[in-house]
């Protein structure tokens, strides 16, 4: 079948975006992996599928698939690209949109300067909600990686995150510890592994080894999870500038019981068609 797609990115975290608002698209894990493949397909970290809503009072539904073909609950950079996509395609003229995702409702807003602010909802801190196998709800918990023990904070932004504080992100063992944390047995749904360097109380540097995609240039939900972890550990004060390899995000959070607000860019690179088996 002939498939029209839009290539987009949020700070270099890149997406293939499909419009399934008028007709469903039959996406198998194999097809997702092909579209995400940077040598044999189009190439992206995640595939985003925009659909009509399934419940009243909501404008759209948006689904997220990692490059490994698995469908996941949430994507922060993707949420901003989703807003740019539905506006540029004339699917809505609203600037404040209610969109359902696998992990619940989020409310992105297109700002006058072209940036997008997303109410990402409240972080979930109970280990059972991450999910993280633990008999403690301490903010900082040890995690054994073979003969090394690291200290992580487990946070869900709808999707699971394990955040570490490191002295220097450029020297962090992202490509070795990342996969070990991603597939650690204590994270039954696997996990995104964040490595955060605190520059000052309003500024961090962050790298993320993403579940199902590997290290990306930026991770929106990872930035939210890192700021939540930093505030809970009394290392950070809201708002926080999150510097990623792809650029900067602004994250605000007023503490437990309140939503995390993320602001950043969303860019359309090109549109094209591809033949899908
Ligand atoms: N790899 C993530 C999904 C994409 C999240 C990331 N691209 C973002 O911007 O939040 C997961 O498996 O939960």
From TrEMBL:
<comment type="pathway">
    <text>Amino-acid biosynthesis; L-lysine biosynthesis via DAP pathway; DL-2,6-diaminopimelate from LL-2,6-diaminopimelate: step 1/1.</text>
</comment>
<feature type="active site">
    <location>
        <position position="75"/>
    </location>
</feature>
<feature type="binding site">
    <location>
        <position position="159"/>
    </location>
    <ligand>
        <name>substrate</name>
    </ligand>
</feature>
<dbReference type="InterPro" id="IPR018510">
    <property type="entry name" value="DAP_epimerase_AS"/>
</dbReference>
<keyword id="KW-0413">Isomerase</keyword>
<comment type="similarity">
    <text>Belongs to the diaminopimelate epimerase family.</text>
</comment>
<feature type="binding site">
    <location>
        <begin position="76"/>
        <end position="77"/>
    </location>
    <ligand>
        <name>substrate</name>
    </ligand>
</feature>
<comment type="function">
    <text>Catalyzes the stereoinversion of LL-2,6-diaminopimelate (L,L-DAP) to meso-diaminopimelate (meso-DAP), a precursor of L-lysine and an essential component of the bacterial peptidoglycan.</text>
</comment>
<feature type="binding site">
    <location>
        <begin position="220"/>
        <end position="221"/>
    </location>
    <ligand>
        <name>substrate</name>
    </ligand>
</feature>
<dbReference type="Pfam" id="PF01678">
    <property type="entry name" value="DAP_epimerase"/>
</dbReference>
<dbReference type="GO" id="GO:0009089">
    <property type="term" value="P:lysine biosynthetic process via diaminopimelate"/>
</dbReference>
<dbReference type="GO" id="GO:0008837">
    <property type="term" value="F:diaminopimelate epimerase activity"/>
</dbReference>
<feature type="active site" description="Proton donor">
    <location>
        <position position="75"/>
    </location>
</feature>
<protein>
    <recommendedName>
        <fullName>Diaminopimelate epimerase</fullName>
        <ecNumber>5.1.1.7</ecNumber>
    </recommendedName>
</protein>
<keyword id="KW-0028">Amino-acid biosynthesis</keyword>
<feature type="binding site">
    <location>
        <position position="46"/>
    </location>
    <ligand>
        <name>substrate</name>
    </ligand>
</feature>
<feature type="active site" description="Proton acceptor">
    <location>
        <position position="219"/>
    </location>
</feature>
<feature type="binding site">
    <location>
        <position position="192"/>
    </location>
    <ligand>
        <name>substrate</name>
    </ligand>
</feature>
<keyword id="KW-0457">Lysine biosynthesis</keyword>
<dbReference type="InterPro" id="IPR001653">
    <property type="entry name" value="DAP_epimerase_DapF"/>
</dbReference>
<feature type="binding site">
    <location>
        <position position="13"/>
    </location>
    <ligand>
        <name>substrate</name>
    </ligand>
</feature>
<feature type="binding site">
    <location>
        <begin position="210"/>
        <end position="211"/>
    </location>
    <ligand>
        <name>substrate</name>
    </ligand>
</feature>
<comment type="subunit">
    <text>Homodimer.</text>
</comment>
<feature type="site" description="Could be important to modulate the pK values of the two catalytic cysteine residues">
    <location>
        <position position="161"/>
    </location>
</feature>
<feature type="site" description="Could be important to modulate the pK values of the two catalytic cysteine residues">
    <location>
        <position position="210"/>
    </location>
</feature>
<feature type="binding site">
    <location>
        <position position="66"/>
    </location>
    <ligand>
        <name>substrate</name>
    </ligand>
</feature>
<dbReference type="GO" id="GO:0005829">
    <property type="term" value="C:cytosol"/>
</dbReference>
<keyword id="KW-0963">Cytoplasm</keyword>
């Amino acid at each position: 079948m002939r498939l029209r797609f839009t290539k987009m990115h949020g700070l270099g975290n890149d997406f293939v975006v499909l419009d399934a608002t008028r007709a469903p698209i039959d996406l198998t894990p194999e097809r997702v992996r092909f579209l995400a493949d940077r040598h044999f397909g189009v190439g992206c970290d995640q595939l985003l599928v925009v659909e009509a809503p399934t419940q009243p009072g909501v404008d759209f539904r948006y689904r997220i698939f990692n490059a490994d073909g698995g469908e996941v609950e949430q994507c922060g950079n993707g949420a901003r690209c989703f807003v740019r996509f539905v506006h540029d395609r004339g699917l809505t003229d609203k600037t404040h949109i209610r969109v359902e995702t696998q992990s619940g409702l989020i409310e992105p807003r297109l700002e006058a300067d072209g940036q997008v602010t997303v109410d990402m909802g409240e972080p979930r801190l109970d280990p059972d909600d991450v999910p993280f196998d633990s008999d403690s709800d301490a903010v900082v918990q040890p995690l054994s990686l073979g003969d090394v023990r690291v200290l992580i904070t487990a946070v869900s932004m709808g999707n699971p995150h394990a955040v570490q504080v490191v002295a220097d992100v450029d020297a962090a063992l992202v490509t070795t510890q990342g996969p070990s944390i991603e597939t650690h047995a204590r994270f039954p749904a696997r996990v995104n592994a964040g490595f955060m360097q605190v520059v000052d109380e309003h500024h961090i540097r962050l790298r993320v080894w993403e579940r199902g995609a590997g290290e990306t240039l930026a991770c929106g939900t990872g930035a939210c999870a890192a700021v939540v972890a930093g505030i809970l550990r009394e290392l950070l004060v809201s708002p926080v500038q999150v510097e990623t390899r792809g650029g900067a995000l602004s994250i605000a959070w007023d503490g437990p019981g309140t939503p995390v607000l993320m602001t950043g860019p969303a860019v359309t690179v090109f549109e094209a068609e591809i033949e899908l088996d």
